[in-house]
Design brief:
Blueprint: E1 3-9, E2 18-20, E3 25-39, E4 45-52, E5 56-59, E6 65-80, E7 87-89, H1 102-109, H2 113-126, E8 147-149, E9 152-155, H3 158-166
Antiparallel strand pairs: 1-6, 2-7, 3-4, 3-5, 3-6, 8-9
């Protein structure tokens, strides 16, 4: 059995890395465009591609993938070769980060205990997980600025997330 899912990503929407443990996935771009990054389970970059209308990308099971929609959004169909795919998420209420010891998170992101504690508490209240880039991250000229809400950084560009997330694998 197979599962097919249609999703529409708004302009510049960004997904955190995620993967399926028991299903390969085929992504088909019906409209718009997206930047898709896939890494080997070992953490090395397997692909960093721009998808446009009509393009397909195959992602094997256990390969983390991250998607950033283009300026006109990304209307995609995802086909998985398992009728009960098991997803692993880097964010959200079932995030793998919630199972990590705080010292592992602090080391992975080079953050203080206070920053980790605040991010973890906020994620519990909001049922989401904030992704924090490493302090030494540098931004490519094409990447967006850090989104700021008051004095708190609440979002970053795809390259910062990639640097932080992929360094953990």
């Amino acid at each position: 059995m197979h599962v097919m899912v249609g999703l529409f990503f708004l302009q510049d929407a960004l997904t955190a890395p995620g993967w399926f443990t028991n299903a390969d996935q085929l992504m088909y771009c019906a409209e718009g465009s997206a930047r898709v990054q896939v890494v080997w389970p070992s953490g090395e970059m397997a692909g960093d591609v721009e998808m446009n209308e009509g393009d397909s990308v195959m992602v094997p099971k256990n390969y983390p993938v991250m998607i950033q929609a283009g300026r006109n959004g990304f209307n995609a169909t995802f086909v998985m070769n398992n009728d009960k795919p098991i997803a692993m998420h880097m964010t959200g209420s079932d995030s793998v980060f919630k199972a990590m010891h705080p010292r592992v998170r602090m080391g992975a992101f080079d953050i203080t205990e206070e920053v980790d504690r605040r991010a973890y508490e906020q994620s519990r209240r909001a049922k989401t997980t904030y992704l924090l880039p490493p302090r030494s991250a540098t931004r490519r000229e094409s990447e967006s600025e850090v989104v700021v809400d008051g004095a708190n950084n609440i979002g970053v560009g795809m390259d910062e997330i990639q640097a932080a997330m992929w360094s953990m694998f």
